[in-house]
Structure formats: C-alpha cells, structure tokens
Amino acid sequence: MSDCPIVGFDHVQLAMPAGGEDAARAFYAGVLGLAEVPKPADLATRGGCWFEGGGVSVHLGVDANFRPAAKAHPALLVEDLAAMRDRLEAYDVAFTDGSPLDGYRRGDICDPFGNRIELMQKL
User: Fold this and answer.
1) Closest Cα to residue 115, out of 84, 90, 93, 87?
2) Cβ within 8 Å of residue 15, ≥6 positions away
3) Closest Cα partner for 11 from 45, 46, 39?
4) What parts of the chain have a pLDDT lower than 70?
5) In what order do the strands lie in the sheet with 75-77?
6) What integer pLDDT is reported at residue 88 of this predicted model?
7) Residue-wise burial string across 79-114, b where 16 or more C-beta atoms lie within 10 A, e elsewhere
8) pLDDT reported for residue 119
9) What is the pLDDT of residue 8?
10) Domains, the chain, with CATH or none
11) φ, ψ at 25 (rounded to 5°)
12) 11 pairs with which residues across the strands?
C-alpha cells in the first residue's frame, strides 16, 4: 500500500504557436494516428487542439510566447517501433535513435513546432 494520493495520469499538454491547429491536426492525427477530440466550449475559444488514442491524451495549447520544448517531453509507447519508424519516414518525419535503456527500444521525433516526443517500445 502506497501513501501516494496520485492515481493516474490524465493528459500531457504541449505548447504551440497561434494558428498552428492545422499543422497539429496533420501531425498528431495524420502522422501519429491519434483522434482529435472536441475541446470544451469555454476552452475552445483559446485555440489549440486535443487528441486521444491508445490510452493517452495530448493537449496542444496556444502560447503567445511559444518556444519548443527540446528537453521536456512526453514519451509515447508504441507496439512496433520499426513499423512506426517506417510510418514516420513516409511522412518525412525525422527519427533519431535513442540511447539504450533496459527493456526498451526508443527514439525521438519532433512535432511540427519543434517539441520533442520520445517513442518507446517495450521489449
């Protein structure tokens, strides 16, 4: 039994520049295969997009002072990293092999805004 009151992870939010919704949709839905979900009406006026799939939720929020997250990042689990790498190549998305980590194959990509995303496959 843990004394930790945290029970799970709801979503990760990444920043994007104003007007980047179409690029976000093309990447997160088109390339990564996540489904866009509607934002609540009171939040939709702020811009941005929300995506879900495979048990993860990724929110893209507009930041007037946007700077890409080069170090901080979400790590998304994939079933088959080689197949995902082929998919990324078909969309001209650069993939960089990650350093070894016991129990995983992994690598990094960037979204259209330069935010780092780690992709991991459990071995």
Assistant:
1) 93
2) 60, 61, 62, 63, 66, 67, 68, 69, 113, 115
3) 39
4) 1
5) 75-77, 116-122, 104-110, 96-97
6) 98
7) eebeebbebbeeeebebeebeeeeebbbbbbbbbbe
8) 97
9) 87
10) 12-122 (3.10.180.10)
11) -65, -45
12) none
Model pLDDT, residue 2: 74
String of DSSP letters for 14-70 = EEE-TT-HHHHIIIIIIIT-PEEEPPPHHHHTT--EEEEETTEEEEEEE-TT----S
What is the predicted pLDDT for the residue at 1?
A: 62
| Vertex 7 angle, CA 41 and 70, to 5° | 65
- Residue 17: Cβ within 10 Å count: 17
Tell which phi-psi region holds residue 106, choosing left (phi > 0), alpha (psi between -120 and 50) or beta: beta
Residue 40's alpha-carbon distances to 52, 81, 106, in angstroms, are: 14, 33, 34
Q: Rg of the Cα trace of the chain?
A: 15
Residue 47: Cβ within 10 Å count: 18
User: In the block, which residue shows the tokens 């080689």?
Assistant: 82
Q: Please state the φ and ψ torsions of residue 93, each to the nearest 5 degrees.
A: -100, 120
